Amino acid sequence: MACCVLQIAGLIFGGAGMVGALAATAMPQWRVSAYVDGNIVVFETIWEGLWMDCISQLGIRLQCKFYDSVLALPPPLEAFRALMCVAVCLSVLSFLAAIVGVKYSQRGKRGPRGASVFILAAGVAFLLTGTLVLIPVSWTGAAIVRDFYDPAVPVPLKRELGAALYVGWGSSALLLAAGAVYCRCWC
């Protein structure tokens, strides 16, 4: 009975982590313009994401522009895009494997061996997905903090941590928790 509750909790964690990984991939708020001058009147807010840049003027008008060329992007951004897309696809597959594993373990008559394979596959896939989400989010966060405190970077180019990074860290934690729960249930 305890393992059943753990499997349902892992399914909830994995589902929430999957949605969070998808949201973090699509959100344009990875890097947000920083206001470090003494000027409190701000007319524009700049958001930079994996897929587009957006400018919000006075909180009323929002203009977003997708990146024109894939070849013109910096190599880290291309790698982060790829990692996040692979993580989203893998999270969907691991969530489906978790559903199948929970379904077969509830029946119990189809054989515990088949259910344990799906539970183990879901656990390992969730752990891998959480790691794949954590890498680009943490790397981007570290680069933002490094550039923010670098005196060589001009003030208009300084950025702060965006909401997508926090969503990515949260979804990574949920995916890693789901993977740990399913690996624990398999043992």
Automatic annotation (TrEMBL):
It comes from the Eukaryota. Signal peptide: none annotated. The keyword Transmembrane applies. It is a multi-pass membrane protein. Its main location: other. It is found in: Cell junction, Tight junction; Cell membrane. Keywords: Cell junction, Cell membrane, Membrane, Tight junction, Transmembrane, Transmembrane helix. InterPro entries: Claudin, Claudin_CS, PMP22/EMP/MP20/Claudin. GO terms for cellular component: bicellular tight junction; plasma membrane. Pfam families: PMP22_Claudin. Gene3D superfamilies: 1.20.140.150. GO terms for molecular function: structural molecule activity. Claudins function as major constituents of the tight junction complexes that regulate the permeability of epithelia. Belongs to the claudin family. PANTHER family: CLAUDIN. This is Claudin.
